[in-house]
């Protein structure tokens, strides 16, 4: 029957539905958090398989959710915008998980590609080939397998003397001889929808784990005269699942090394010690950047060309221009730094901090929701919160924007060409006019007129510093 050319043509017309299993808790992670929400390269595990599934352009993507369903659904939506969700209320095994999608698929003539949420590195090209082979063979079920040096924990593929598929046996149910088999089930299958659900009806939980195993389906199909084919894939890493934190760490390391190698070879980035840098796969780094040991670049951060990032610095979801020097031990989150700036050591930029071109932030300076204008400097021991600082302005050591009155946050504006003296307290809301100067230790509670010197507690105008041409004319 499977060689019937008519069936083969019909098979190739069958719409593709991808079914992603993601309802399990992942007991071996020993975690309160569902396994597919654990992070790999800064993204939840489920993100990877969803994006790969989407790139196959299937007719639909169904995700089986259960443990922390709301969070898993949000993670899926963040990864691919939309998918259909089915709920598996009780986690009774992979077969039961597929059964949860029955109403969506059983009566369709879809080709169902089953993927696991915990197999993140599977590539679209591999799946494409697998699907094509399945379509061409016209069989009811194809299984993707791989050989592992250490197959412990996986379901083993049992073949007969002619190398033909016999069954899949789970680690816990396997005999000593079967445990020696190195060919494992990747948990990736293609099924004809109708046959899949008909066979699933007959799966029972008579096994060591008391679960409904999806892995029993191929054997049932074959017993009924349908053909099952196993495709042995060459790259074991690609189809390995993550079941423990040790495996998660191995994958993290693998992904990290891959990302850094690509940045060195393709983007022209120097790593002083590639084994001690942590760069998100989503980050973009420009040519001739130099990354020191112990740097973490997280999320969708971009660095322009020729930046130097010194040891112990973390940059998350931020944009950095060209030629920026970020000295040791800075934390930069959700912020933007334009070209030719210098930051740190020990600076903290967060919540949309913005440094315009050629500005400088130095030792122990924190910026929150604040903007530092072009060429301005804040070199030492300063807090800038909800502040807008103009151009060519100097913020003296120990300056604090007192932005919080215990109830609300208030803005501080410091205009161009201002000199804020050391230890000035700017009690917001307040504006310091352009060209003004505050003396050391001033507590500024009222707006400072342009081009004046203020001093004292509270600060008062001591003298007019200059007259401006444009003012005289006006
Ligand atoms: C499964 C296979 C095993 C294969 C391995 C490959 C079965 C019985 N075993 O084992 O042959 O070698 O994958 O990685 O299928 N899930 C649910 N609901 C459940 C149980 C699991 O949605 O009730 C989901 C999990 O969230 C996970 C996936 O199914 O994403 C696989 O489950 P897991 O428990 O990791 O199966 P393995 O023991 O790894
Ligand atoms: Mg698994």
What key attributes describe this structure?
474 residues; alpha/beta; UDP N-Acetylglucosamine Acyltransferase, domain 1; 2 domains; 11 helices; 40 strands; disordered N terminus; binds uridine-diphosphate-N-acetylglucosamine; binds magnesium ion
Written overview of the protein:
- The chain has 474 residues and is of the alpha/beta class.
- The protein folds into 2 domains: 5-232, Spore Coat Polysaccharide Biosynthesis Protein SpsA, Chain A, CATH 3.90.550.10; 265-473, Hexapeptide repeat proteins (UDP N-Acetylglucosamine Acyltransferase, domain 1), CATH 2.160.10.
- Helix content is 22%, strand content 31%.
- It contains 11 helices and 40 strands.
- The strands form 6 sheets. It has a 17-stranded mixed beta sheet that branches. The chain has a 9-stranded parallel beta sheet with strand order 14-17-20-23-26-28-30-33-36, with no helix packed on it. It has a 7-stranded mixed beta sheet with strand order 5-4-1-6-10-7-11.
- Helix 1 (5-13) packs antiparallel against helix 6 (124-137).
- The protein is elongated, with a radius of gyration of 31 Å.
- The relative contact order is 0.07.
- Mean pLDDT is 95; it is low at 1-11.
- The structure holds uridine-diphosphate-N-acetylglucosamine (UD1) and magnesium ion.
- Uridine-diphosphate-N-acetylglucosamine binds next to strand 1, helix 4 and strand 10.
